[in-house]
Amino acid sequence: MPSTLPIALIPARGGSKRIPGKNIRPFAGVPLLGRSISVALSAKVFSRVIVSTDDPKVEEVAVEYGAEVPFRRPAEIANDSAPTDAVLQHALDWLSDRNELPSQLCCVFATAPLLEAEALRRGLELLVEHDAATALAVTTFHFPIQRALRSTPAGRLVMREPEHRLTRSQDLEEHMHDAGQFFWIDVAKYRACGAIYNDNMVPVALPPHRVQDIDTEADWTRAELMWEALNRQSGGRD
User: What is the CATH number of the domain that holds 35?
Assistant: First the structure.
């Protein structure tokens, strides 16, 4: 029988081509992974916080900050092309084999230093309230995507959707993107469909100033600046 208490799963492999050692690199004095673990623990909705990794150094940091590392992620799903679904399925299979499947699971990303515990709690509420398979953290694009520009093979700049050249911004449909922070799943519904992105998703809307995924050094610098600004705004209590 599934547990009634949710589990947090944090994928954190050892390799990173663009930012070596990214998941355990210090961010404002704390390893990036350590921040995600600490926020997940502070949400007080999880029975366990599990880190899925292939790397002993990542495991050391995970345990230091209060997470479990009960299994080692296989090499075939520990490369930069492995989809999150494969990592998730591996963890769920491990839990199922031990009769430890939860009713809900939250995948929390290690590269989300602006993550807040309140957002995690709200995500669980929305998942249950809407009887959804997935509750995905999202935020709005900073600029109308209908006004996007692209470069042609000839090096000319053109509008992606020229029919909206004169459309007022306020008349354009607002679009969202994955915030790269977390998503919740109803475990039974997810195992039935096998995909995070499905036809039974609900949004967990986050303000843009709380969102900065980290894939490049430029992302890292921007996230640090946002962190500093938020700390100044909150008087250092963030």
Answer: 3.90.550.10
